[in-house]
Amino acid sequence: MTYFPHDPYPTLPVSPVPAQVQSCWDAQLACQDSDVLSLALELGLFTHLDEFATAEQVASQLALSPGNTRLFLEVLASMGVLEHTSRVPGQTAPAVYRTHPQMQPYLSPASSLYLGDALLFRHKVLCRSRKQLEVLLREGAPPRDAAPDETAQQAWARAARVQIAQEQRAITVPVARRIAGRLPDRLQWRTMLDLGGGPGLVAIALAQDLPDLSGVVYDYPSVAEVAQHNIEAAGLQGRLQSMGGNLAHDDFGCGYDLIWCSSVLHFVPDEAPVLQRLHAALKPGGVLLCAHAEAGDRRVLQYYLRMRMQGRQVLPEGALARQLRKAGFTDVTTCADVDFPVAPVTVLIARKGEAL
Ligand SMILES: C[S@@+](CC[C@H](N)C(=O)[O-])C[C@H]1O[C@@H](n2cnc3c(N)ncnc32)[C@H](O)[C@@H]1O
Question: What region holds the O-methyltransferase dimerisation domain (predicted)?
């Protein structure tokens, strides 16, 4: 029980709002933060905030209302996306704002790590999900298509061109590089498979780091075209190629030293046979790096809610490691809570035992 200081009504208790009620309001306020960020990206606001600028300067460049631009920038600063300061410390000159230095690589459109389109895409998907959630809640998961139709595959191809590519450049590639960099046998790797690799930037980055590495980016045919384009743009067509098919039943090759497989198994009807085929596709001593969200962390529960209600698999913590051992993998090492686009993943490092 708390009381106002110098309370003229000392017997009247002022009960604190329960944390659970505040968390409902916080969730609603987070929706508004998401709208603010998306509007800022759509307006190209961050283009004008690489250097410190007043709200008036930003407003004049974008033909906005100066007063309301200041209020808008204040909220972006409260989110940590911008930093602000007085132009002259200790004086009441107008505040100046710039993109927070740690956010600049991700929000400055000129940066190679720009995430703006990916953030807008996620915002749209999450806004749309309200209607879908209601239908899924009332009707349950729809029957699974045996194979996604051409429209669904084209949607993956569009995502691979923009949103997945931005997320791979900014987040997934650095994670893959860090994990591969820890494995002492990486210098002996000669062939790799990037399964469900989307735009293929993980395979491209690893091939750039390891000059003796060749390999395949495997995805639906229309997505494989995007990967092939990126492979050629990187000048790696002599060492990498893309292959199109449905990984649930088509051949994805064999004899690999390394298989990278991230955020893919959610989309197959049953991961167990795929894991067995991955084991068979590795050379003895080869390594599978498998990065997938596991149900447990709150961000995973939030982000994957719609997909899980659609009947997609997000396995509970530890289940994928158990399935890998069942499929014949040895030395399964778990790296939990690894940063990944939107929600963390568990990275499993699993080996195919050497032939006896
Ligand atoms: C969420 S994205 C992940 C892309 C990439 N692995 C990454 O982590 O950035 C899933 C990818 O798996 C591909 N995919 C899903 N189901 C597939 C299937 N049955 N056959 C081939 N590719 C599939 C999609 O086209 C998409 O590129």
Answer: 32-101
